[in-house]
Design brief:
alpha+beta; Deoxyribonuclease I, Chain A; 6-stranded mixed sheet; 4 helices
Length: 233
């Protein structure tokens, strides 16, 4: 049975230590990720070439500094002469990757997801990443419905999957709206006293040792990192 460690981490656009972007903040995030022990890390609130973060490609920088040889940046929207989105870092080779734009009706934020398929010792494992809307309840529900559709479509064609993300709502709300998946995080606080970061998973996986790594005490981010051990069945 293949096992690996999966993490989900909202890095807050590397702007939490000084309330604005600073290269030291991004370096601290890379150091934190390098020391987390995860094989695959899904990141949210990632800038690529944006004015507010001095044009840096955060996913590329973190992948190099934290020793993850493979990564995929997932665009959510254009922002300040660059792109804003999410990313997935991997120690395993990426054999497939995709960015999916949601067919939203009301949401203006969190309007995409993406995935990578990685080769774990001959096993192909697909990991999605998303950051659902926080602009309103209607926006969040809109993006959650879109995510549900995309996950169902993939699962019906290709089977098992995992989905990391900042869902901006409690686990119970996710469970009420995406009923056919399991949730790794039931009550661990990842943002203040809220459990809004999660890993969804389907049959074909077992998830254990779900835990957090504190990133808020040193202002590395305003979110804690969520980690879990994934067994491929």
């Amino acid at each position: 049975m293949k096992k690996f460690t999966l993490a989900s981490f909202n890095i807050g656009a590397a702007s939490k230590m000084y309330n604005k972007y600073d290269p030291a903040d991004l370096e601290a995030i890379a150091d934190f990720i390098r020391g987390c022990g995860a094989d695959v890390v899904s990141l949210q609130e990632v800038d690529c070439g944006c004015d507010r973060s001095a044009g840096v490609d955060m996913a590329k920088y973190i992948s190099e500094k934290a020793n993850y040889p493979y990564y995929h940046f997932i665009t959510i929207r254009p922002f300040q002469n660059g792109l804003y989105g999410t990313a997935i870092l991997s120690r395993f080779p990426i054999t497939d990757k995709k960015t999916i734009n949601y067919k939203v009706k009301v949401a203006k934020q969190g309007t995409s997801c993406g995935y990578v398929s990685v080769d774990i010792g001959g096993e192909s494992v697909t990991i999605f990443n998303t950051h659902l809307s926080c602009e309103s309840d209607a926006g969040n529900f809109d993006t959650m419905n879109c995510l549900d559709y995309e996950l169902r479509e993939y699962y019906s064609r290709r089977g098992r999957l995992l989905c990391c993300g900042d869902y901006n709502v409690s686990p119970s709300v996710v469970s009420d709206n995406i009923k056919w998946v399991k949730l790794a995080n039931k009550d661990l606080h990842t943002y203040a006293d809220r459990s809004i970061d999660n890993v969804l998973y389907t049959s074909g996986f077992e998830v254990s040792n779900v835990r957090i790594k504190d990133a808020t005490a040193d202002l590395i981010s305003d979110h804690n990192m969520l980690l879990c051990t994934v067994s491929v069945l």
